[in-house]
Structure formats: structure tokens, C-alpha cells
Amino acid sequence: MRAEERRQAIREILRTAEKPVSAAALAARFSVSRQIIVGDIALLRAAGEAISATPRGYVTERAPAGLVRRVAVRHRAEQMGDELNAMVDNGCTVLDVIVEHPVYGQLTGPLRLSSRYDVSQFLARCGRADARPLSELTEGIHLHTLSCPDEAAYERVCQTLRRLEILLEG
Fold it and tell me: What rounded mean pLDDT belongs to the chain?
């Protein structure tokens, strides 16, 4: 298969995938190295494809279902699991994390966490990689973009984050 044909196939796989697709899975499917896939994704992005890398793999960006809301929070790294579970337990999907960096400006990390299982897998990957949360760059202050089924779910998230004493409010 030629490189352009492979990239077209990757584009279609990502457009129709129900969940993120890892570079390793794509590499195995096309019998190429993971690095070839990383390069293909870079070229697809450069050509205008809206592809995001999440902790679980690549996704084609789609408009989130339901209401999109943001919450501002501040907590210590060890509270990350409680924070994320508070959001997914109340029916919302955590789309991303956003911090303000003094040099680079806004840094956004895609997450797409919808369940306790997703949260546990994310935390396990952080532990295996010895990765620190982006919020450590901002003394724990960060935003999350949420996709919520309705306003009631968003309000439940806010109430839970208040109880945890991590919600920032004006």
C-alpha cells in the first residue's frame, strides 16, 4: 500500500471509530512502525484534518453531544482521581484539561474521559509514565471542558466539586 493510500485509510478509520485508535493498533493494521503512523497523522493534520491525540489514541474531532460547559478548579495532584470521578459519576464527559502557561499561553490536553474505568486507565497511564498533571504548572489551577447531557448534570458536578472544596468560583 502506498503512503497516500494508507493515510486515506487512516482518515476513514478515525472518522468511523467509536473510540480512540492507538498508533500501535494502526501500525499493526498497516504493517508499519508506530513512528510511520505518527508521521502520517502529522501529515493529515497539516492537510487540515481535525485529529486529536488523547491518552488512549487518536480521534477525529466531533462536536460534543449535549451541553458544553467549563469548570475552574484548584487541587493537589493526589486529588485528581476524586476530581475526575466527580465529573464522570454525574454523567459528564471530561473533554480536556486547560492551563495557562506564562510562556506558551493556553495549553490544552485532550482527555475524553466518560467513566470511572476511563479515569482509572488514565491515572494508571500517568503512574506508569511517571507523568505529572498539567495543573502542576499553575499551582493546581486549571479548567476542564465538559460535555454534559443536561444542565442538571452540570449542576451536580459543580455541587460535588464544591463539596470536595476544589471548585473555583467568582
Answer: 92
What are 70-95's pLDDT values in tens digits? 999 999 989 999 999 999 999 999 99
Q: Number of folded domains in the chain?
A: 2
Alpha-carbon gap, residue 66 to 92, rounded angstroms: 9
- Enter the pTM of the model: 0.74
| 116 and 159 part of one domain | yes
Same-domain check for residues 19 and 42? yes
In a domain? residue 143: yes
Residue 168 counted as domain residue: no
Rounded to 5 degrees, φ, ψ at 127 are -65, -45
β-strand partners of 96: 110, 145
Range of the domain at 101: 67-163
3-state SS, 93-150, equals: EEEEEEEEECCCEEEEEEEEECCHHHHHHHHHHHHHCCCCCHHHHHCCEEEEEEEECC
- Residue 84 CB neighbours (<10 A): 21
* Cβ–Cβ under 8 Å, residues 111 and 94: yes
What pLDDT, on the 0 to 100 scale, is given for residue 72? Answer: 96
pLDDT in tens, 90-121: 999 999 999 998 888 999 988 989 999 999 99
